[in-house]
Amino acid sequence: MRDFVQRVVGKLNVGGDKDRVSVVQYGRDQEVHFYLNTYTTKEDILGTVRSLRHRGGRPLNTGAALQYVRDNVFTASSGSRSQEGVPQMLILLSGGRSSDNVDIPASALKESGVLIFGIGTRNSSREVQRIATDPSFSQSVSEFTDLPSIQEQFFSSLITVQVEATPITPTVIVDQSIARKDVVFLLDGSDGTRNGFPAMRDFVQRVVEKLTVEENRDRVSVVQYSREPEAHFYLNTYTTKEDVVDTVRGLRHKGGRPLNTGAALQYVRDNVFIASSGSRRLEGVPQILILLNGGRSFDNVDTPASALKELGVLVFGIGTRSSDSRELQKISYDPSYALSVSEFTDLPNVQQQLLSAMSTVIVQVTTMTPTVIPTILVESQAPRRDVVFLLDGSDGTRSGFPAMRDFVQRVVETLGVDENKDRVAVVQYSRDPAAQFYLNTYTTKGEILNTVRGLRHKGGRPLNTGAALQYVRDNVFTASSGSRRFEGVPQLLILLSGGRSFDNVDTPASALKELGVLIFGIGTRSSDSKELQRISHDPSYALSVSDFTDLPNIQQQLLSSVEAIVIDVTPELTTDLVTTTIVSTGGEKRDVVFLIDGTTAVRSEFPAIRDMIGRVVEKLDVGLDRVRVSVVQYSDSAKVAFHLNKHSTKDEVRQATRKLQSSGGNRLNTGRALEWISKNIYQRSAGSRIEEGVPQFLILVTGGKSNDDVSGPVNQLKTHLVVPLAIGTKNADPNELRQIALKPELAYSIKNFGQLPTVEQQLIASVNTMTTTDISSSFVPSVLDIDNLNMGRKDIIFLIDGSDTTGSSGIAHIRDFILNIVQQLDVQLDQVRVAVVQYSDKVKTEFSLNSHNKKPAVLSAIKRLRQQGGRSSDLANAIEYVIRNELKASAGVRLAEASQHLVVLTGGRSPTDVSVYGPLLKGSRVNCIGIGAGGADSRQLNQIATSSADVLQVPAFPGLPVIKERFIARLNGTIPEEAPTDFVDPSLPKAKVADIVFLVDGSINLGKDNFKEVMGFILNLIDLFFTERDNLQIGLAHYTTDVTDVFYLNTYKNKDDIIDAISRSEYKGGRRINTGTAIHHVQENHFIKDKGSRKDEGIPQILMIVTGGRSADDSKTAALALKATGVRIYAVGVGDIEDELNNLASEASTVARASTFVELSELNEQILETLEDEVKGIKLCTGVSQEPSKTCSLEVLVGFDVSSPNIFQAQRILESRMGAILQRITKMTGISCSSGQIPLIQVGILAMDAASEPVHLEFTDNADMLFEAFRALRTRGPYFLNAKTIDAYGSRFKSRAADAVKVVIHLTDGLDGQYNEMKRQVEELKISGVNSFILVGLERVPRFEEAVLLEFGRGFRYTRPLRVNVMDLDYELLEELDNIAERECCAVPCKCTGTRGDRGAFGLGGLKGGPGGAGGIGHPGDEGGHGDRGPPGVNGTQGFQGCPGQRGIKVSTHLAPLYQSTG
Predict the structure, then answer these.
(1) Cis bond leading into 167, ω under 30°?
(2) What would the DSSP string read from start to end of 618-654?
């Protein structure tokens, strides 16, 4: 940047009365290095610029810097001569996006007359373009080191603009010291702002300091609010700045919740901005409200904010990250006046922006009173208008209706209402429309305003905007209702709609436009913006607001548009609208065919196309013996709605047209449709009278660019004197439309189909007025006429690819191409002879040079060509066959009498090497032209073609007609040979290109003497390796525990200086080495662009480490990190450190070890040999020399199909597998031909839903974001894999970069379509340029082996089908992508990869979980056995007395002693 400033200053004529210069540097804050009047000589300025040092700091506040320059540099005191008319120029160099707002200060500078030139990098170019005075005044560079590349262009712009610049009187912005302002601060004092309140208070003080506070100058008021507002002082409380500042210093935080911002705004309106509180609004003094808000409002803010705006108050909103930014924008006078800071402590960063914005808008507002718009101007420009308001009165607009009503009042206020001036009507509608009053109901403004104020909301649903538009046309814009349309008075309809219409709006809107009504549509965020644009007179007249309460913001814009358009339209109305009778064709015969786009993409606009046909038919004299009409609809293919002889009256055609419905389809094949029409519609059997000489017209209506070639079919139509007229919308290709149309003026481009009425009169005029003579004179046939192709004697052999890659459709296009060529050749035995050979994995002669004597026979043989089929396209075998069998005299070759030509048409890559056949053909004096389509290998074509100019390529075989003229020119030898290049002696070896850094151990491992030996070894190596022809850059560093940078890659440019610097290198010393730290240092400080690394250019990057011991830190990890960036590491060591060297080196061949330092010199030969191979790009795997470097880009579409509504329930493993796949494939590593540069990869997702509509997730490199979007599709199934799915993949890739490698990975639960149809679609996918189609089987996939046959283009391993339950599936797919990238970007036939390592050990166990919940009650157990008898129990209580016993037996007394002794 500093150097750039010096160079620009060097171009200037510096002097006190000539050019003056100032330099300001900024980051978070600004610093002036010198002002415009500091220096008066160029030498002083250059000396100061050379000594500039980088300032640093963050964030980048470009807005504050711009404001600072305006206020402090572009001033008379700093040397600015703006008052003398001297051009004021600001040159901004910005390297990043500003963290503050730049629009306001940039506008302020521009209004001051400063011309701003901006230079940005890729991070800041868009912002710089906004800041610049004009987008053309901004330049962009990739890095600031590229500034010299744009210097001349920049200086040229500077000089040019300086001449054109005229002094701008700097009185546009009102000086704050003179202007009068009433400024009210409304501060958020709720609980959420307690910590930030001191910063708010300080901010108010600083702003007040900038004001001129006096009774007759600036007045200030402060209000604080939370749940309720509180005025600290009013506008008339204080009359001096000191009183205001003292009171502000004493403010205390109010506190409270919730935050009612709406109530506070209403309070300020009703209690502060009034005369009794000191407001001078009625005197025209600007009223300013500065709101500082720290949270979202609890109540509604829309109504009070609108009320303030209606009062003319300029509201500035400042919020923090806790605020609702949308709410602040709605409150603010304009969304750009809503400022934002992270915290209130950052308020100083926006102070200058606020003050600038305040001063900028004051001029616009000073005269703002309740009647803001200058009525007299409007009345003088448009003396008479009929204005109808159509208001949405449905249920959805109940809350917004008062705002609509107020808007109507304000617009009516600006009109000159009178019976002979402006007339007004109002209609309200929902389900049905109702006229509130007509154009002739009232004749005074007062009556209208009174009625509008009394309007009540209608209510009802649904919203039928179409019916309302038709009602207005039929009942309001009529003479009986007061319309003066037939007097030429402009008819205006202002529609206010708050939702999408339930019925069709296109037909009634078109009817109103035909009537000459100018429609302005105003909608909210709930409206359909596209619908409003279609309804409006022009899409630019469709205005939008967030809510109806924001209508004041667009009032002026509406009135400006009305004024501008009325002047344009008034004269047209007096002529066009009166003549509404149908134009008759005077009984002349015409055949008119409409070919209309029926794709799904234009389905919503199809009614507009249908209505256009109806209107054109109305103006034609339809009848079988007069004008006949046919309609054909097309997308992938064409389909006739009715033929030319189907209907004989206008009514029949009209009814048939009304029944037209969009047929749908994804591809727009305009070429195929034109060809079909030529063969099927412009025929006698279809009603065409082409043979009778009746003029034939084709009206094409399309919404996009054709997927196929249109040139051949349209030329065929023009040859038969059919007149094509082409109409296309903004998505159509204007060049293609002009190519289709008979003349460029018959091609019409419109923004959308709603604008079709604008071209109808031209269509009708062309159909009515063009005669057969006009048509024949307008058609100019192609310059390549048969008579002009006198090529002399030639033997031409067409060698065509008939493999499965080409397919039957490809052969058909090749056949048509050869037919077209041969028809223009003088085919006969003594002039041009033709042969055709077809090949795939086998070769077959269709006919030889001497098989046919005359052109008709050759043409007939070509027409019989059919695809022979075959898996491969073996071009090498085919060329050898041609040399042995067809380039022989026995086959008709005339070696001495004619020139020989071999024309190869192929759609694939030959599996065998063809390079040997190029020299062989040239040696035989056979001129070879190679034509490739789709997957053809351009390198192989260049190897066989006579020269690079003889290689012609098209995206697919349908595009062959595009190269016809170039092909004939090559065949005829009319393209001049390329100029000879400088002679290079082939005996000399190729110059070497590389960046090599030597990293040398400087510790005691070497010692001082051995260090000299190592330096000698490096010197010898460089001396042997570096020749004067080479483009080598060398760097050197040595290390111990830290690193010493001796010199960088860009320090020295020649070998002698490098050797001299190495010789001077001194021993460092140190006890141990940190090789890992040193490698990291080299990666961060040597292999970077600033230090000369050319890695971005694909130059080999090499680090050569010379060490004598083991590292004290982790050197292996550091080496792996460096290798991952593409740097190759050579490890040279001394002693027993083989393991250390192997850990450091890129591979075994880049390791060199010696026993002693003296023996290092013996390693030279080994290292030099490996280095030679390295810089030549020779890889150990293939031995194939690669180009130095290529940028490889991959685009991967991941698709899936699951036959269930909830895809994760049906396929439980799909969610986790998809996440792993997306994460893995977005992290590819470098490939062999990119010097380690990682391929650029973009991944998208596609699935085909049940309605046969593709679901797209956009391409991105953010795997997490893509996965979240995929998860959102969880319940939107089922999804299917069929022919339409594969076709959708092809269509999706069509809009992507042509040079990217395109891959489809599809996860399937089985085929959902016919295999043959899917196979054909897969072939078309392959032809279209998709490089690989890979299938992954989900769980329970039926017949997956059959599905796998659809695959093509996988990596170097085809044998293993991929399934979702394969371990490490994500790694498998990453390896597939790596192999595909190697094959497509590097053209290698194989890749050597090591076996995948063993699976790692089990990880540590997780933490112990918390206690589980209580278990359920268990089942009862089995019944147990009898237990043991228990011990005797305690004695019980005495029982009751028993019953008396029986009486005893009586015995004799002499036995009594016996009883007694025994008892």
Answers:
(1) no
(2) HTS-BSTTSEEEEEEEESSSEEEEE-TTS--SHHHHH
Neighbouring CB atoms inside 10 A of 1041's CB total 14
* Residue for token pair 């043959």: 1316
Summarised one tens digit per residue, pLDDT across range 171-182 is 333 343 346 899
Q: Which CATH superfamily is domain 181-365 in?
A: von Willebrand factor, type A domain (3.40.50.410)
Q: What is the mean pLDDT of residues 789-805?
A: 88
Half-sphere exposure of 1438 (CA within 13 A, CB side): 3
Domain boundaries, the chain: 2-164, 181-365, 375-576, 594-739, 786-972, 993-1176, 1193-1386
For 375-576, the fitting CATH number among 3.40.50.410, 3.40.50.300, 3.40.630.20, 3.30.43.10 is 3.40.50.410
- Digit-coded pLDDT (tens) for 1134-1154: 888 888 898 999 888 888 888
| CATH number of this structure's domain 786-972, picked from the four choices 3.10.20.30, 3.40.50.410, 3.30.70.360, 3.30.465.10 | 3.40.50.410
Q: Which CATH class is domain 1193-1386?
A: alpha beta
Side chain identity, residue 41: T
Helices (H), 604-726: 606-618, 650-658, 670-680, 711-719
Q: How far is CA 1380 from CA 845, 1304, 1320, 1331, 1333, in A?
A: 34, 12, 23, 8, 11
Assigned token pair, 1329: 């340029």
Span 243-268, mean pLDDT?
Answer: 90
Please give the structure tokens belonging to residue 672: 């195929």
Band (pLDDT 50/70/90 cuts) for residue 165 is very low
Is 468:496 a contact under the CB 8 Å cutoff? Answer: no
Q: Cβ atoms within 10 A of the Cβ of 889, count? A: 11
User: Could you tell me how far CA 677 lies from the centroid of its own chain?
Assistant: 37
- What mean pLDDT is predicted for residues 293-321? 88
Question: How large is the angle between the packed helices 1263-1271 and 1214-1225, nearest 10 degrees?
Answer: 160
Rounded Cα distance between 21 and 285, Å, is 39
The distance in angstroms from the start CA to the end CA of the chain is 143
Tokens found for residue 1421? 């157990």
Residue 346 to residue 355: CA distance in whole angstroms = 16
Both structure tokens of 24: 């300001």
Q: What is the mean pLDDT of residues 141-156?
A: 82
pLDDT value at position 173?
A: 34
Superfamily the domain 993-1176 falls into: von Willebrand factor, type A domain (3.40.50.410)
Q: Which ranges constitute the DSSP H helices of 1226-1308?
A: 1263-1271, 1283-1294
Homologous superfamily (CATH) for 594-739: von Willebrand factor, type A domain (3.40.50.410)
- Determine the Cα–Cα distance for residues 1324 and 259; give it in Å rounded to an integer: 63
- Name the band, by pLDDT with cuts 50, 70 and 90, for residue 149: confident
Vertex 1210: Cα angle to 1285 and 666 (nearest 5): 15
Q: Is 985 exposed, middle or buried (0-12, 13-18, 19+ CB in 10 A)?
A: exposed
- How far from 1205 is each of 1268, 1274, 1276, 1278, CA to CA, in Å? 18, 8, 6, 5
Percent of the chain with pLDDT strictly greater than 90:
29
